[in-house]
Design goal:
By secondary structure, this protein is of the alpha/beta class. The chain is 43% helix and 21% strand. It has helices at residues 9-28, 33-40, 44-56, 123-143, 179-184, 196-207, 270-274, 276-282, 296-308, 312-336, 346-365, 385-400, 402-411, and strands at 31-32, 60-63, 77-80, 85-92, 96-103, 108-115, 147-155, 158-160, 165-169, 174-177, 191-195, 220-225, 229-235, 238-239, 340-345, 375-378. It has a 5-stranded mixed sheet with strand order 6-5-4-7-11, with helices on both faces. Strand 13 (229-235) and strand 14 form a beta hairpin. Helix 2 packs across helix 3 (44-56), helix 8 runs antiparallel to helix 10 and helix 10 (312-336) packs across helix 11 (346-365). The radius of gyration is 23 Å and the shape is globular. The protein binds zinc ion. Zinc ion (ZN) is lined by residues 252, 262, 264, 266, 269.
């Protein structure tokens, strides 16, 4: 990011108003200049001038037949430009890589996943593969007239977001990998990195479709089952990050003090008892080559198929996972009093079998249960939540600070 001159008061007011108008269009959908003036409290003349800048910057477009040949006419509808800027989300996980591109409205325009055991590779090789996937995504976006506003990567470990540094990813065996620097050196784009469970919680918040009359999710815990078990805590629609962004490590809550050793150095952590490998092993699915690694979709599909068929060993494995999950989620609920626990990743497809034993554990272990029963919801995004959240952070940055985009365009001579 290039340093900007200190903004004059008037300029910062205009920047604020540009964001205000753009965010209204993002949250409420298409609107006329007059409607925007009414909801923002700005004058129509101010709104028109702001809209001119947003249209020139390709952030906003005039819509519909009434706009035909009448750009600037007060009655014509305005909307976010779906063929302008886009966000690129990447996910580097233990047994897969994923990439997606979303437009300004948050719609997915490109999506790819590649399965493969990243534990057997050096960070450089895995990140190079992720970079190639991002490059293909950028080319596909460009072919649709989209221009990337930035790239954000979701990582399965403790991430120092400011430095773009992956401190530790126990399941990958990676330490102190400068992931942000790696991607910044390869793409002429603003780059951000964050913990995948944090981004999954944000993805669910922004794109999970929970905004309906009965579905408002403001305070929830997102728990995603993969090789690791990740947690994201959202309080008042904001992600709770902790001092260094390391909060939400629900996978390393102790469920069984003398249980199996964990890669974090502890014992009996939730992910050793309810992570993907623990469930597959207990269900008797990890023995066959190629079922547990390198094909996460395949092994999870096999697990779900067995559960559907009523295979008793599989159902017992899921019940054992639900018991461990219940202990960890109840501890979390007792601390933060969320309204809802969202089951993500592998747990989304196991939710029909997890729900009853999990609810029983929560009822027994959560003190506020009689007055504030914890709702259990399957994630609407499932395994896509983290990569959607990653792309979403890029989009949210554009929507909250359109002036930065406009300045960059001006700097490029547009
Ligand atoms: Zn652990």
């Amino acid at each position: 990011m290039t340093p900007q001159p200190a903004p004059a008061r008037q300029r910062s007011l205009r920047e604020h108003n540009l964001a205000l108008v753009l965010q209204r269009l993002a949250s409420d959908g298409p609107a006329s200049r007059a409607q925007l003036a009414a909801v923002t409290g700005l004058t129509k003349a101010t709104v028109s001038s702001l809209v001119d800048d947003l249209v020139a910057g390709r952030l906003v477009v005039e819509l519909g037949p009434e706009a035909r040949g009448a750009v600037g006419r007060p009655g014509s509808a305005l909307a976010l430009n779906r063929t302008g800027l886009a966000g690129v989300g990447l996910e580097v996980n233990v047994d897969y890589l994923a990439v997606c591109v979303t437009d300004l409205a948050g719609e997915v325009r490109y999506r790819r996943t590649r399965a493969g055991d990243n534990r057997r590779q050096s960070p450089g090789r895995v990140l190079a593969r992720a970079a190639r996937m991002a490059r293909a995504a950028l080319a596909a976006a460009e072919a649709e007239g989209l221009a990337a506003a930035g790239l954000a990567a979701a990582l399965p470990g403790l991430v120092e977001t400011e430095q773009g540094l992956l401190r530790t990813a126990p399941n990958l065996g990676w330490q102190d990998v400068p992931v942000g620097e790696f991607f910044s050196g390869r793409f002429r784009l603003p780059v951000a990195v964050d913990n995948e469970a944090n981004l999954a919680a944000l993805g669910e918040l922004w794109f999970g479709g929970h905004d309906g009359p009965n579905g408002i999710l403001t305070d929830f815990v997102h728990v995603s089952g993969e090789i690791g078990v990740g947690g994201g805590i959202v309080i008042g629609r904001e992600l709770f990050r902790g001092v260094r962004g390391f909060a939400g490590e629900i996978g390393h809550l102790t469920v069984q003090p003398d249980g199996p050793p964990c890669r974090c150095g502890g014992r009996g952590c939730l992910e050793q008892l309810a992570g993907q490998e623990a469930i597959l092993r207990a269900a008797g699915l990890s023995g066959a080559a190629g079922t547990s690694m390198g094909d996460p979709g395949g092994s999870v599909a096999a697990l779900v198929a067995r559960a559907r068929a009523g295979d008793s060993r599989t159902l017992q494995a899921i019940e054992a996972a639900a018991h461990a999950l219940g202990i960890a989620i109840a501890a979390t609920a007792n601390l933060v009093d969320p309204s809802t626990v969202v089951l993500g990743g592998l747990y989304t497809s196991l939710e029909p079998w997890l729900r009853a034993p999990l609810a029983a554990e929560l009822e027994q272990r959560t003190i506020a249960q009689p007055w504030s029963p914890l709702r259990i919801l399957p994630s609407r995004l499932g395994p896509d939540a983290a990569v959607r959240g990653a792309a979403g952070t890029v989009i949210r940055r554009v929507l909250s600070n359109p002036s930065a985009v406009l300045r960059r365009l001006a700097g490029d001579g547009h």
